[in-house]
Known about the structure:
- The chain is mostly helical and 334 residues long.
- 75% of the residues lie in helices and 1% in strands.
- β1 (76-77) and β2 (85-86) form a beta hairpin.
- α3 runs parallel beside α7 (197-207).
- The longest helix has 68 residues, at 6-73.
Amino acid sequence: METTNVNETIPQSKKDAEKRSKLDFLKRFKRNNENNNHIGGAKSAISSTILILPYILSFFTFIVLPVILAIILSFTNFNAMNFPEFVGLTNYINLFTNDDVFMQKIIPNTIKFSLICGPVGYFLSFFLAWLLAQIPKVPRTILALIIYSPSLTAGVAMQVVWIAIFSGDANGYLNAILLDMGIINEAIQWLQSEEYLMTIMIIVTIWSSMGVGFLAMLSGILNIDSELYEAAYVDGLKNRFQEVAYVTLPSMKPQLLFGAVMAVVNTFQAGSIGVQLSGSNPTPNYAGSLIINHIEDYGYIRYEMGYASAISVVLLIFIYVVSIIIRKILQTKE
């Protein structure tokens, strides 16, 4: 008959107790760690919410709320004095059927202005950014500041430079030069002429269009890895045109998308240029009036807020549709 050794039983029981103790400790540690992670995650979420709350409130107050109010007011007859009166789609029907100025002057002017200023300013921004990327840092910084500065001082420059250049009397710079050269016999009213006002607006707009879109493109080009160019030349790249087409453009699609959206928004929102140049809203015979000027005309001069809101909604939809198209073209797959 076999007997149990007491000396072997006691160490074995100690080992089992130690294992159970370790397992209990690991379970408690895991439970405490999960609780701490839960508490830490909750604190992190609260902190993030507090930090982003001012932006959310500002975005809702100055972007979302005005859009909602504009959409609501577009279905009303509101003169900023009396309580809005609901009229349904009347404002939109009148806009597209009875407003001859909108259909015959404003829309053609806006389309012409946008199709020229938007693409030209966009491609010029990329071209200048690409040129600056080829030169050393110090001259690049100076030239970038010079090119960017008109977008910051456009309002001041409008009064000091462009109005003086295109002044309608004989003392205007352009008139004085043309009179001295014998090209014209009398001073031309450049800024009051239906023939020249839109062309001058386009020139001034392109001159001041090198804004944040230009800086984004310059930054995108400078941040492209130089090894990509080296690898491309090893694979058979032959000239700078191929370098731009196969390396530069594909590597900076986010910056191209941002620049395109900014160009669209800035172009369609441009309205003060014609007013500042001509000195009146609407411009002479609506020659330089854009859709934003039509909104200001009905909203701030005639106080037809409901009708002005309907025009604003149409402009918003148009900008949104064009932005979506551009996004589909330029967006990356990531």
